[in-house]
Amino acid sequence: GLEKLTRKVDEIGGNSRKICEDALLETHAIVTRKAEEAMSKSNLPAGGKFSTGRTLEALRRDANISWKGNVASVSVGFDIDKGGLASIFLMRGTPRMEKDQALYNAFYGKKTLEEIRQAQENVFFDEIRRLGG
Fold this sequence. Notes:
Layout: H1 2-11, H2 16-38, H3 54-57, E1 65-68, E2 71-74, H4 85-92, H5 101-108, H6 110-130
Antiparallel strand pairs: 1-2
């Protein structure tokens, strides 16, 4: 559906590239907010007793959008090189530890995906309405 919206924006004289970037910024903000909430000590295994805070520090808070041809992307989640490796074990679990469902849902949950879809649609429709299309 976003391809149709992009064409519509281009037809009425809008800047579809900028709108795509705005939609990705919204996406990044949603996922980052949910990940931060899930990483609060009270939500971590053992009530955060063993948390050093290093994984949370590895959360990508800056939304850097990159383009490859006509495809835009934004990195969300944890930077593995900066201490985010533990996030994988938290999200997926281990043989001795259940996965952190709240953290998993921050990235892959049905509600998160629906919130992202809705936010992206809103960005496009708001711009189409602004342009009078």
